[in-house]
What does this fold into?
Amino acid sequence: MLEIKIYPMQVLKFGGSSIGSVSKMNSVVSLLNDGKSRVVVFSAMAGMTSSLSEVADYLYKKNPDGANEIINHLEQSYCDILSELFLASSYKEEAQDLVRSSFDYIRSFTKDIFTLFEEKAILAQGEILSSSIMYFLMKDKGIKVSLLPALDFMRTDKNSEPDPIYIREKLTKLINENDADVYVTQGHICRNAYGEIDNFNKGGSDLSASLIGAALSAEEIQIWTDVEGMQNNDPRYVENTAPVEHLLFEEAAELAYFGVKILHPSCILPAKLNRIPVRLMNIYQPEFHGTLISNKMEKRTLKAVAAKDGIIAIKVKSTKMLLAHGFLRRVFEIFESYQTPIDMVTTSEVGVSVTIDQEKHLDDILNDLKKFGTVTVDYGMSLICVVGDLDWANVGFESKIINALNDIPVRMISYGGSNYNISFLIKTEDKVRALQTLNNTLFN
It folds into this structure.
């Protein structure tokens, strides 16, 4: 059996906003031009996926003229980018040929039957274009670089879950066959178990980077954006926020779920299971170490506050619940039947309150719940969470957090389900005041 040698390296992922302009593209190449061994994962350029989705929408509606108008506009915008990127370069013509070929491929779908399979093939062109352009730009700058198509190694199984054994085998073989300092590939896109072009869900480029890092036993996975690393509160609403230097994987997952946009929760698990740290970096401040996410716990420390809007609270009150068994199961089965996840749960002897974040099947859910008791609904709510080392043995943390909200009405409190999170349900109109008060009390 052929022994596959894996070299220690980092995996870097650059989102669409990080390569959304010529200046940003050049900044990224400057970051990578230091001779270090890396795999670099690129998302589609900012706005490209939305534009390609619009092309697909026109094709579903059998309007090829509308689709071609968008395709022509996109092709011209890419040609303009190439003209500015490659002022006097031998790689300009190769990049132009690639762009023409890609858009001709997209146009080919305007002349045939259009299904979900064709849509995914079109959407994949966003990542293929961005990574190829960055590949040519790196070659132009003298970087020893190799382009590894994600469709050659990234695959899901028959359950639409990533296939880590296949990914590791194919990727390491490709790397050993191509001698380079930097290996460029695409995020988000893959093939399914039947060999068809597919993609991961939202945040898929983060997951791609995490899967690649796990396959290569990487030293570190870096997620680069054009904003500062994870903050200890929402700077849009709160004064005097500060960067978070370190988070436990579980803490990062809690924050991501509660609305922190910089990291998608799906990317955490492969890195966590393989004990690979994830670092959140800013292309405008590469000298700062960013936010490091790892399996290392910082004891007796509160890390951050986050909020999630659009929450609906539902309360079911019934004397049938008193000393009865099976009541909660029947209530939860209603939400399961409508594929509606529950965020928070609190119970009493004669009632249960839950929160959800979608209204799609709300009327049907409420009608079914009324079979069990009196149902009341609160709209316009927000979930506030405080994340950190909230083990029950840390005396004083809970009271400090609760006292900070002593003049804000709290509808529900959840504590004990996790050692890393305490959550409150409040009216959205009180959210900004709650975030600022918690920030002043806990961090300043």
Observations:
- Confidence is low (pLDDT under 50) at residues 1-5.
